[in-house]
Amino acid sequence: MKQVGFIGAGSIAEAMIKGVIQNQLLQPEDIWVTNAANQARLLGLQTKYDVNITSPGDLSFVEHADVIVLAFKPKDIMNGLERLKPFNLKGKCIVSVIAGVPTRLIEDTLNEAELSVIRTMPNTSCAVGESATAITPGRWVKNQDLINIRRLFEAVGIVEEVEESHMDAITGLSGSGPAYVYYMIEALVEAGVKTGLEKEIVQRLVYQTVVGAARMLQEAEEDPAALREHITSPAGTTAAGIAVLAERNFPQAIVDAVCKATDRAHELGLVYQSELSD
Ligand SMILES: NC(=O)C1=CN([C@@H]2O[C@H](COP(=O)(O)OP(=O)(O)OC[C@H]3O[C@@H](n4cnc5c(N)ncnc54)[C@H](OP(=O)(O)O)[C@@H]3O)[C@@H](O)[C@H]2O)C=CC1
Ligand SMILES: O=C(O)[C@@H]1CCC=N1
């Protein structure tokens, strides 16, 4: 893999760019980025990461890039693909990080026979090399492309290869997942501040609590339920706190959130499939 071009310069594109540069999988000069309209954003990325940019809407790097990352919103899929169509995509690998959009739609819309398309679902923790990324190959993926793209995402976290039928659920689970965790952290901080502690102190305590819990999961050979039990003394403070969460059906709220996010990913895919057949 020599040159990677990002079409879309938003949150996930930046997280990936930051991660792959930090992990030295790619050099800044091998990365190209464009977007739809926001020139200031592109200049900001160039200043921060020293990557190549083109003017908004200028996809000329597609001619020499080996890998093209589709990093725009699902609503922009048809427009984004139409703009790619005029290019000779022979031998190139198209990597989509777009929620809900099936590989088949990309394959069928782009004007290239037997195109290598890989659908992926990373999360923004790419930026610190800690993404949980799922990848699924399209119909005509070359083995070497799959190896290369796996390597790209392994440079910024862990990778699971899955059947495409699981991608919407993964989008709702680990694609959106950091947001659920941040939401809980926001609430923990709010609770700490309410006790009268300084916000900075609360933040340090809470962030480290979350980092420590995550490391325990990775390093202790016990599941989360067992780790929770170790903290929960009979009739102690944790038991009192957990009882409130159980009473408010915290686990069910999380399950419902993931299901809803999964349904939303599926809906996004259906919308654009039906557009294709119109
Ligand atoms: N954010 C996340 O945590 C994750 C997001 N994703 C997926 O990644 C995709 C991007 O999400 P995110 O980065 O959050 O979105 P952002 O809104 O932050 O960025 C979207 C980018 O797409 C650009 N864009 C829109 N249309 C076009 C076009 N036709 N050609 C070129 N660029 C275009 C926008 O340009 P401009 O600003 O100029 O309009 C912008 O740079 C989505 O499909 C999402 O499902 C996947 C995993 C995680
Ligand atoms: O919210 C979204 O649609 C995207 C997909 C996964 C994370 N963010």
Automatic annotation (TrEMBL):
UniProt entry keywords in alphabetical sequence: Amino-acid biosynthesis, Cytoplasm, NADP, Oxidoreductase, Proline biosynthesis
Catalyzed reaction equations: L-proline + NADP(+) = (S)-1-pyrroline-5-carboxylate + NADPH + 2 H(+); L-proline + NAD(+) = (S)-1-pyrroline-5-carboxylate + NADH + 2 H(+)
Location(s) in or outside the cell: Cytoplasm
UniProt-listed InterPro entries: 6-PGluconate_DH-like_C_sf (IPR008927), NAD(P)-bd_dom_sf (IPR036291), P5C_Rdtase_cat_N (IPR028939), P5CR_dimer (IPR029036), Pyrroline-COOH_reductase (IPR000304)
GO function terms (MF aspect): pyrroline-5-carboxylate reductase activity
Pathway: Amino-acid biosynthesis; L-proline biosynthesis; L-proline from L-glutamate 5-semialdehyde: step 1/1
Main location: cytoplasm
Disulfide bond among keywords: no
SUPFAM superfamilies documented for this protein: 6-phosphogluconate dehydrogenase C-terminal domain-like, NAD(P)-binding Rossmann-fold domains
Residue intervals of the Pyrroline-5-carboxylate reductase catalytic N-terminal domain: 3-100
One Pfam family it belongs to: P5CR_dimer
Family: Belongs to the pyrroline-5-carboxylate reductase family.
Role played: Catalyzes the reduction of 1-pyrroline-5-carboxylate (PCA) to L-proline.
Protein name: Pyrroline-5-carboxylate reductase
Gene that produces this protein: proC
